[in-house]
Design goal:
By secondary structure, the chain is of the alpha/beta class. It has 2 domains: 1-94 and 275-355, Isopropylmalate Dehydrogenase (3-Layer(aba) Sandwich), CATH 3.40.718; 114-250, Isopropylmalate Dehydrogenase (3-Layer(aba) Sandwich), CATH 3.40.718. It is built from 11 helices and 12 strands. β1, α1 (12-29) and β2 (35-38) form a beta-alpha-beta unit. α5 (158-173) crosses α6 (189-203). The longest helix has 19 residues, at 308-326. The chain is globular. It starts with a strand and ends with a helix. The structure holds nicotinamide-adenine-dinucleotide (NAD). Residues 11, 15, 71-76, 88, 253-255, 273-279, 285-286, 289, 333 line the site of nicotinamide-adenine-dinucleotide.
């Protein structure tokens, strides 16, 4: 399996270095023959090439079997036409990675922010919605009408609703068989009622999966009050982006927020959080978001190629993550005192004990 690795900005190089060591040790242990090829995007690439991301890089990525993308500092980016492109958006759009799978669960031994244990997945539509550059074929869906008036458009299509709904139901069928639709149909009546209707239509193909729905604002309260009542949550792009940061923080930290961006033919592992400039360079960032994302990528590849060893490797990564958390071998954000780079050593030691 050839994986392109792009460490990204801020804490990205620190957490991705741990992920590299983990992937290579797992590859050796399970004889996966994983090849990592390092490339740059984001601020480093902007300095080197004049663009945060390039079409040449996209071509290299397309030739690989998967991508591990680090966090990008996007707030400070200017105009895309001047090379200041949001790399996450660029890959999601150009590789049609429509399903953003964002699990959040509590771990024994970790400081969590709610009383209940929970295990849920936010399934976020990743290619349209309220994200300007994902709305139209080219250009932006944000318009400056006068210096004081801006119109931002949201695109919702039947095609994208159907495929994200199907991803959610397939996941739910192998879990607790419960899908919750999150929407704002009381205000965005046409688009979000279409989203709800399509989810119910797709749901008919999965008659044993229970369906309910919540308005997004109330959902914030429900998920804080009783996160254990949810299994798979399906929602549109921006709601999923916001809700999944909440659910991962409730589980303990944004540093646990591993995600997979999956399409039909390609997938990208990427932590849900940003470049965390407040802790960058301090060797305290939690690398488990990256490790969990990598485990999801190996699982996706294993399912696609029907490879038992890739699936076993992914399960071992999850198991070791669980064991390290249980024994308190974690970073300070979740109550431990290990440095970022010490997680790699701890992980490899645990993996060797399984030999
Ligand atoms: P952030 O997600 O970077 O950080 C929010 C908080 O969570 C901070 O306190 C940070 O220290 C903490 N945190 C995040 N990851 C952590 C980890 N692995 N371990 C421990 N703590 C962690 O959000 P922000 O500060 O609003 O954004 C910083 C930059 O990242 C901005 O430029 C933003 O645009 C960008 N961003 C990028 C992505 C992405 O690349 N996918 C996602 C969100 C934000």
């Amino acid at each position: 399996m050839k994986i392109v690795v792009i460490p990204g900005d801020g804490i990205g190089p620190e957490t991705m270095a741990v992920c590299d060591e983990v992937l290579l040790s797992v590859s050796k242990r399970f004889e996966l023959n994983i090849e990592l090829s390092h490339e740059s995007a984001g601020q480093e690439s902007l300095k080197k090439t004049g663009a945060t991301v390039t079409t040449e890089l996209l071509e290299k990525v397309k030739k690989a079997d998967g991508l591990m993308l680090g966090p990008m500092s996007t707030l400070e980016l200017g105009q895309a036409s001047k090379g200041e492109i949001n790399a996450s958006l660029f890959f999601r759009k150009n590789l049609d990675l429509y399903a953003n799978i964002r699990p959040a669960k509590t771990y024994p031994g970790l400081t969590k922010r709610v009383q209940q244990d929970f295990d849920l997945i936010v399934v976020r539509e990743n290619t349209e919605g309220f994200y300007a550059d994902r709305n139209v074929e080219s250009g932006s869906s944000e318009m400056l009408i006068t210096p004081d008036v801006v119109i931002s458009l949201r695109r919702i299509t039947r095609h994208c609703c159907e495929r994200i709904a199907r991803s959610a139901f397939i996941l739910a069928q192998n879990r607790k068989k419960h899908v919750t639709i999150v929407h704002k149909a009381n205000v965005l009546k046409i688009a979000d009622n279409m989203f709800i209707d399509i989810c119910h239509q797709v749901g008919k193909e999965f008659p044993d999966v229970r369906i309910d729905d919540f308005i997004v604002d109330a959902m914030m309260a429900h998920v804080v009050r009783a996160p254990d009542q949810f299994d798979v949550i399906v929602t549109t792009n921006m709601f999923g982006d916001i809700l999944s940061d909440l659910t991962s923080e409730l589980s303990g930290s944004l540093g646990l927020a591993g995600t997979l961006n999956a399409g039909i033919d390609f997938a990208m592992g990427q932590a849900a959080h940003g470049s965390a400039p407040d802790i960058a360079g301090k060797n305290i960032a939690n690398p488990f978001s990256q490790i969990i994302s990598a485990a999801m990528l190996l699982n996706w590849y294993g399912q696609k190629h029907d490879s038992k060893s890739f699936i076993a490797a992914s399960q071992a990564m999850e198991q070791i993550t669980l064991e390290l958390m249980k024994s308190g071998q974690v970073t300070p954000d979740v109550g431990g005192n290990l440095k970022t780079d010490e997680i790699a050593k701890a992980f490899i030691k645990q993996l060797q004990m399984k030999n």
